[in-house]
Amino acid sequence: MARKPAPGTRERILDTAATLFYDHGVQAVGMQQIIDHAECGKNLLYREFSSKTELVATYLERERQAFLRRWEEAGRRAGDDPSARLIAFMEATALSVQSPGYRGCPFRNYLAEVADHDDLPGRIATAYLLDTRERIESLVAELNVADPVLLTERIWLIVEGLHTAAAHPGGDRAAQVAVSLVKELIDQAAGA
To answer: pLDDT per residue over 106-145, tens digit each?
Structure first.
């Protein structure tokens, strides 16, 4: 009879895999490396996650839910003003890229690393980016601006640039610049 895994085993394996995937890339990390770092047996790993694809998908979905919670909380704190909520969204995004060891957005990293985006992890990563863009579009649509499509495109470009710049040497000011640039764009669009 198989023993029941200790409480927290699944999370420990997922935490280990998440760190390895983020630090080294999904393609570079094998299941044996996860087994070694999590100090678990192969059978235990595969009992919790039937495949590497499932493990990667679970990692990305957990990251997605964490980002969504941060944005929801930032939006609640900002109140009803769509401009304040948009700035709060940018500030939450900026805060996430300022964490020690930031190596880029895990979703963008996955999509850049893996050519086939039709697998479950690819669909999760793509959905995250679409959700993010839709959130920006929705907030901009609530503003009284002459060209909401242009403002959305500009803010999206800033978000994309923020994730890229912050992950590289010299990117330590990217968050501050991105937030101030979005504030300027909102003010300009509202005054136009």
So the answer is: 999 999 999 889 999 999 999 999 999 999 999 999 998 9
Quote the CA–CA distance of 67 and 96 in Å, as a whole number.
Answer: 8
Q: Which residue has the tokens 């490396």?
A: 33
Torsion of CA 109, 115, 119, 124, to 10 degrees: 30
78/178 Cα distance (integer angstroms): 18
Q: Which residues contact 42 (CB under 8 A, 6 or more apart)?
A: 31, 32, 35
Residue 29 structure tokens: 């990390």
Residues 6+ apart with CB under 8 A from 87: 78, 179, 182, 183, 186
Distance CA 129, CA 64 (A): 10
Q: Architecture of 62-191 per CATH?
A: Orthogonal Bundle (1.10)
31 Cβ contact list (under 8 Å, min separation 6): 42, 45, 52, 55
Among positive and negative, which fits the CA dihedral 37, 41, 46, 48?
A: negative
The predicted model scores a pTM of 0.89
Amino acid at 102: Y
- Options 1.10.10, 2.60.40, 3.30.200, 3.40.50; which CATH number does 1-50 get? 1.10.10
